[in-house]
Design a protein that fits this description.
- By secondary structure, the protein is α+β, with helices and mostly antiparallel strands.
- The protein contains seven helices and four strands.
- It has a four-stranded antiparallel sheet with strand order 3-2-1-4, with helices on both faces.
- The longest helix is centred in the middle third of the chain and has 15 residues.
Length: 181
């Protein structure tokens, strides 16, 4: 049994408890458990958001991907633009499509590359800091006040910022799958 747990942990990067559960659920078949692990645990939090700086007529999108198990930031992306169409992006779309939209917006007229990069740096610093601890608490629904520190960080650079966000909780299989077109 311990050999199977060790093999599964090595193959998938899961911890001992996750390996034991996966093996139990798969009838102690290591190959089946290796295939099952990415779908068993929802450890990826995707935050999709919009920002608005009314005083500057700035519109933006941002995306942050967190690994809850590893308590780490996987990705932080942002785009800021004078084009209000950027802000019209829906937050309820699939995270992969949202990220594609964000990248597409970077090519639109009115996009401010330097400010977009600054926003990404602010996002990365925020979610790598202790201020973001609430986002790494598994099973916790995020509230508007959880974004107050992020709003403050962005506002320190861009002026009074309004932030809207939506969260999606994914398993590693959902995160890695290629989105069909």
């Amino acid at each position: 049994m311990n050999d199977k747990v060790g093999i599964l942990m090595e193959e998938t990067g899961c911890d001992r408890g996750e390996a034991e559960l996966a093996l139990e659920l798969c009838g102690y078949d290591v190959e089946s458990a290796v295939q099952a692990v990415p779908r068993l645990f929802q450890n990826i939090l995707v935050l999709k958001g919009r920002v608005l700086v009314r005083s500057e007529s700035l519109y933006g999108l941002w995306l942050v991907i967190l690994n809850l198990k590893g308590r780490s930031l996987m990705r932080a992306r942002a785009v800021l633009s004078y084009n209000p169409a950027v802000f019209s992006s829906e937050l309820d779309r699939h995270w992969f499509d949202f990220e594609a939209r964000l990248y597409a917006c970077r090519l639109w007229a009115g996009t401010i590359q330097a400010s977009s990069q600054e926003a990404e740096q602010i996002l990365a610093a925020h979610f790598a800091s202790p201020k973001a601890a609430a986002f790494f608490e598994e099973g916790r629904g995020l509230e508007n006040e959880d974004f107050a520190a992020l709003r403050a960080d962005l506002s320190a650079r861009f002026g009074d910022v309004e932030v809207e966000a939506r969260q999606d909780l994914l398993d590693m299989g959902q995160f890695r799958e290629v989105r069909p077109r």
